[in-house]
Fold this protein.
Amino acid sequence: MTAPEPFRFPVAARYAGMESSPLKDIFALAARPDVVSFAGGIPDPALFELEDVRAAYDWVLTHQGARSLQYGVSEGEPELREQAARRVSRHLPTSAGQIRITSGSQEGLFVAAQAMLEPGDVVLVESPTYLAAVQAFAVHGARMIGVETDDHGVIPEALERSIREHHPKFVYLIPTFQNPTGRTMGTDRRREVAEVLLRTGTALVEDDPYGELSFTGTTFPPIASLPGMSERTLLMNSMSKLMSPGVRIGWIRAEGRVLDTLAVAKAAISMQSSVVDQLTVARYLEVCDLDAHVARVSAVYRTRRDALSAALTPLLPPGAHVTLPDGGMFLWAALGEGYDAQAMLADAVAAGVAYLPGWSFYADNPDRSTMRLSFVTHAPEVIGSAVARLGEVIAAHGAR
Amino acid sequence: MTAPEPFRFPVAARYAGMESSPLKDIFALAARPDVVSFAGGIPDPALFELEDVRAAYDWVLTHQGARSLQYGVSEGEPELREQAARRVSRHLPTSAGQIRITSGSQEGLFVAAQAMLEPGDVVLVESPTYLAAVQAFAVHGARMIGVETDDHGVIPEALERSIREHHPKFVYLIPTFQNPTGRTMGTDRRREVAEVLLRTGTALVEDDPYGELSFTGTTFPPIASLPGMSERTLLMNSMSKLMSPGVRIGWIRAEGRVLDTLAVAKAAISMQSSVVDQLTVARYLEVCDLDAHVARVSAVYRTRRDALSAALTPLLPPGAHVTLPDGGMFLWAALGEGYDAQAMLADAVAAGVAYLPGWSFYADNPDRSTMRLSFVTHAPEVIGSAVARLGEVIAAHGAR
């Protein structure tokens, strides 16, 4: 006698074979206590304004208690939409009615995909781009095509060529302190990209979770704020990198009829975001000085970027390329021909240091010699010794 | 000169024409301060255990502060999964590893749909069934087919016939204190339905947000707990009706490989649920007596069900049918031939009373004479006078 076959749940094609992922295994490895990990984009918890957040929750539960525990609306709580609109309005005039609250940027990307994508649609993305965005688009049956970039972001001519060839449903860009490269599109590049999008009648999903984490004091107006762009852009912000990722609050800024579609999609996905969290973030934004907090965080991150860059750059082989981001959380290194960052990872972890192999950030044609390193989690002295060990691994692989 | 055409965002077919909905208009009407609304399924906020919830948030932010503000994992926080497993284990042995946390039941339904549904798939649902579940399935391109029900829920013979004819991807049932009817499947009916599902090799999505809100002290083991069923059932629970809908915490109980798919889908949709909220609900479940709270709430809801039933039943026309639920939040009335609850609503609202027309709860072949009334929001004296006005409207429409 044999045991009966266990029941197998049907799995939609979009998730077939995705029960585990190499990245999940990497993060599991990187979480080992003996490993200094640059793999995640994890904020340093020592920088959380815990007391301010605790006070905001307490205020909400004391003064808006019944409301905070009750159902809300899919569009988001009015106070939070008002606070979000004020922040966006620094660069782009925005009313609360033009804000849709989401449970972090990830849900924002998923809502945008739900609202717009059909199976077989093309989405143009930077090459490389943020991998979880690619996943949110891919499970909608979209085909991602990478557009060539340089140190100033996506190349306008390449973008226009790709748009004319592939007729994308939208273009997805992270113009400021990009994930994974840390690169930023300057003012001229933004204008050139906007002109391409306007000329070709293309929609833009502009993801801006890092833009406020500037190391130079300079912040960049979103592409959405350029003439003609606001009506064709879904601009996404998140509190994850500024206040707390655990609270899961972000928003989409949009105009016109798409706002209704976004609200209907949000309702289908999760009805509404946590009302307690929404009201708490609104309170926090109202009474706390987020700008001062972000300035403190950015100053710390800057010293860590410096430590990572100073330690890593001399250890890289000739012909390697490494970014020196003006903000954000990530630095990107391409070791160059002959290196495979994925193959090298096991040795790196054995040496007590982890990074994220860069191939996973490419929609197509990955440069397998690339790696993403987040500089935000560890103190400079930890960074220095860990990168020294990584240098030995790189040298050993270069000698092969 | 004419102004240029405004840019139109592409809208996926799944949301085409869904910029607004008749239901949204109804809820807007029903929210008028001069209207006593039975339309929503809104818990009475006076029954929230505000002080307990506030204390739980405060404890988490004091003792698990940095962790609560940091990224978590898509599966959900271990403490909450442990607490959820304990509650589910009252009827069905369950480990924390078999729990996936979602942002309320709505996201649970959406995650299940993402994990399983392809465009063109059939989902069998009770006729009538919960309309927001229908929406979560519909935006995945599924075709919903309603299965005939009686006062004991879905009819096993009709279910088997439908399964053999339509080969559904899964069957979606709310066996206890169903939304919208308030009906409950008894023990025998559950066994018969389980036998059909086992015999036909069919997966079940079992939605149980109301089961603990019992007016008789009797709670019903889920169909998932019957022999052979646990491995083919996604069992969904929610804290929305027990503790707070604003906190947006629910879970899916499952077994085997589908657990991995659910986690990957959850990650694609929203990365993870609010870590603060998860840890707070875990703390609440650990130190507060949710059973005692639910007993208090159920006792209040019972008096309100009695008030609504006593007021409404004598006012219904001959041939009308009304349910007398043993728990939950909803009562369902079918006025019978010649009545159109949607057409009657404007007069009801003018008379200061609102309900939800029943047609929207049908996947197909709606009985337009039906209406859903929630008895949980208002005190008995408010219910009595509002229903008297509704009775006049019904009488006027019957005389036409």
Remarks:
- The first helix of chain A runs from residue 22 to 30.
- Chain A touches chain B through 83 residues (CB under 8 Å).
- Residues 75 and 100 of chain A are 5 Å apart (CA to CA).
